[in-house]
């Protein structure tokens, strides 16, 4: 380790003090079987960044079946899900190790999956890695630091370069272009101009990569510490046009006759302001909704008299676009639904005015927000990017007022648990109908009434339901009397309570 500074040598020594029981044991086992082993990639990079976790990346000249032979009597558990790509997973105590055979990857122009060719030397393996900061290694068990491509100086300078020509690197694996943006977002690094030029010239090559791999990189980028840097790089190089085309389209033309905000810049500010409101680490649903909340504006832009520009119903159009884009990127269904719903709801607050909403309207706001209400609060607050300080303060005070009203009503009525005062069984009994669409329509009528009027009691709810049924020709006239229905419901409730007791 003589090529390291004193502080860097100390970082490596501290690392091996922690991992020696695992790393040195394993290094000795590989050496005894005639194989090389080295700690590599992000595991080494993170040592110098002061970030040491329990996941370690290692590389070896041993083939996967030979790796299995070395670790079979040593590891607590082994998994081979990545063995086709040369990787064997191992758990030893609290440590999770991924041991990968020296290799090189390349994409066939007609395939979405990388091919794997095993290598023979550590130096050649490091050359095929994505960036120099990830192309450093420490041999085991001797602790010899290996940095043939200047990763440590690049790490100190906070710059991303490729070990070889970037064009060759990106041709081997086009996903590395997205990784450059992701690392810029995660680490706050700048990207070497030659790398940026290659990303720009080869942007369309990203289309050979599967949607799932693209999704994973975008998700890591958006959840990074500096997502603006990564997103800006994607837009500037043209990569975003292939993987997230709605983003560059937010750069709407602005002329001297038609006035509106720079939607692209506004979106990045909203994202940053939403991040500032997070309380427990990155919230992917909040961040994606902030990024996509205005993507419906380009499709809904209209020029009005007096130089104004309108974007009527852009939240509805944007929600549909959000759902389509996230489905194409293969996001989980619940994430797609949540992000699209937040995009759809993000303008709802602006109907509040200076507090004109009735309690019924506040109940509906809470009901529509559902489990996303806290995120909706944050997104709505983050969406204020006006430079007019007085206007910004007024909007903040107004939303404070709305949240106070929500809290008051929640205490009085348990808003999060709002249900009609009659359940499905009671509706069927009262109307004399069987399960079916009519019960659903009746349930919706009772829910709307509950939101509008609050708690009115079961008897009044039953009377209102019968009036509704009469107006809509619902039921066969054989249902219960409202008072009888109320008594039956009370008896059922008492019986259930006794059974539970």
From TrEMBL:
Organism superkingdom: Bacteria
EC top class, as a word: transferase
GO terms of biological process kind: RNA repair; tRNA processing
Residue intervals of the HD/PDEase domain: 259-355
GO function terms (MF aspect): ATP binding; metal ion binding; poly(A) RNA polymerase activity; RNA binding
InterPro entries: HD/PDEase_dom (IPR003607), HD_domain (IPR006674), HDIG_dom (IPR006675), NT_sf (IPR043519), PolA_pol_head_dom (IPR002646), PolyA_RNA-bd (IPR032828), tRNA_adenylyltransferase (IPR014065), tRNA_CCA-adding_enzyme (IPR050124)
Keywords linked to the UniProt accession: ATP-binding, Coiled coil, Magnesium, Metal-binding, Nucleotide-binding, Nucleotidyltransferase, RNA repair, RNA-binding, Transferase, tRNA processing
Annotated spans, Disordered: 471-501
Coiled-coil segments on the chain, per record: 392-419
Cofactors: Mg(2+)
Biased composition (Low complexity): 491-501
Compositional bias ranges of the Basic and acidic residues kind: 481-490
EC number: 2.7.7.19
UniProt cross-references to SMART domains, sorted A to Z: HDc (SM00471)
UniProt cross-references to Pfam families, sorted A to Z: HD, PolyA_pol, PolyA_pol_RNAbd
PANTHER family: MULTIFUNCTIONAL CCA PROTEIN
Protein name: Poly(A) polymerase
